Amino acid sequence: METSVPPTSVVVIGAGLAGLTVALELAQHGPVTVLAKRSLSEAATAWAQGGIVGVLGEDDSIESHVRDTQDAGAGLVDATTARFIAEHSAAAVQWLVDQGVPFSPDPAGPLGLHLTREGGHAVRRIAHAADATGRAIHEVLLAMARAHPNITLRERWMAIDVITSRHLSAHMAGSRAGPPPAAGKDLGSGPSLLERRTEASRCYGVYALDIDSRRVDTLSASAVVLATGGAGKVYRYTTNPETATGDGIAMAWRAGCRIGNMEFIQFHPTCLYHPQERSFLITEALRGEGAHLKLPDGTRFMAQHDPRGELAPRDIVARAIDFEMKKHGLDHVWLDATHLGEAFLKEHFPTIHARCLALGIDIAHKPIPVVPAAHYTCGGVVTDLDGRTDVANLYAVGETTYTGLHGANRLASNSLLECVVLGRTCAAHILKAGTADVPNVPAWDESQVEDADEQVVIAHNWDELRLLMWNYVGIVRTTKRLERALHRIELLKNEIDDYYANFRVTRDLLELRNLVECAELIVRSALVRHESRGLHYSRDFPSTLPVSLPTVLTRPARSRG
Length: 561
Prior knowledge:
Elements: E1 2-13, H1 17-26, E2 32-36, E3 52-53, H2 62-72, H3 79-87, H4 89-99, E4 115-116, E5 126-127, H5 133-147, E6 151-155, E7 157-164, H6 165-170, E8 186-187, E9 203-210, E10 215-226, H7 247-255, E11 259-260, E12 265-272, H8 284-288, E13 292-294, H9 314-328, E14 333-336, H10 342-348, H11 350-358, E15 368-377, E16 380-382, E17 394-396, E18 401-402, H12 414-433, H13 456-472, E19 476-477, H14 479-502, H15 507-528, E20 537-538, E21 551-553
Parallel strand pairs: 1-2, 1-10, 2-6, 10-17, 16-18, 19-20
Antiparallel strand pairs: 3-5, 4-5, 7-9, 8-21, 9-10, 11-16, 11-21, 12-15, 13-14, 14-15
Helix pairs in contact: 1-5, 1-12, 2-3, 7-15, 10-11, 13-14, 13-15, 14-15
């Protein structure tokens, strides 16, 4: 059954820090609908352990933070974006403090907060709530959203596609999606490319699936905000929650938005290696406080790879671990924090201590087995500093986006900061733009599809895609592996598109459809980059070019959805 509901001012897709920041700012002036495809508590924000950057201390400066961001980003950070984010970092932390987020205190610290240090940072500038910062932030903002009369939270609702001008002009054809395109390429200079943005394509709302009732609603809106997080689940091993299936990136691509820097997938160096727990992250802050990476014989190895040792940027640490594992035939390496003392570990890393202890690992007396895992999507939907995409009235914020902040690698704890700073500017721009009239949009058409006769196709393709990406498009890449991956991804896309065209949608089908879209974007972006830089390392192109630009893919206009 397809229905159309009365238009709302704004629909926010995603209930993590980015989405909730936008929603709370907008709700002061009008109604907002927030969609969460699983439970409201399952956003990636809640999994963030480390903290949020704030240029707060007397030993810190805007210039220092920008320099650290640029160093980590390996020459592809947009300087204007980095400076804008750094300049607004103190206000972002203060905004969270004002909302009631219980950061770890230090009476002698700036704003009365304890600041820690993570890899790539010159000084202590990370505000945190012990080792569960994301959860502390998310719980506070979610409680505020639940209580706000202008915010409607739709739990277990998944966006299918944004409604664009194409739907209005072509809905009489009876098709719910255009043909799958081949990705083009457009190497440009990053977010400034939004100067080419036109008003010819506009967003008028979103088609959304009520997962429990299997009903598809047509949600008309004067603006839609994509805040769905990254695409970590495209890999077999990831620190991401089940929600990280690249939904916003894929929807924006189908709508005609450009996608930038998708080859730069950050692999967190230290994910817990345990048969009962494949997604538990061991925060970078543990290394920031002095934990050592070691081989089974107790030998430290990071100094052989980088003079900064365990405090080198994540891409360097992840490649070093990958190198040592392959060199010695290891399934994992060890992260040793025993010398920090039990009392210190319980006070500063209670979540890690408790979780590892429950799995039989007492981190105060034994090293932690760790392995790299897909962690953060540094690329995404091209936006400006107001969250605007190439499609009018369609915005994007957070890990879903490419703003130029992260470049070829993300500096630790810049992600939560970006969510708050640009979440607030996005809301301000939407309010400034005002509420536009929303025309009648076509309802979702299920007249030519039926219930799927079996789900094994989805499960099989899901497993094949994630294993394929892990083996061929991982930490170290080759052109041959990438070409093989692309060939198989194209076959999988054809199978999935055929399935999508003939059967009623489910969450599993929609997530698989979005993941295979993101997989193709990652591989095509990686094939374009003929160098090794930041998170992208190619054995065929091991050198770093003296001058490089972001990778920006453009979808042919004729095939936009």
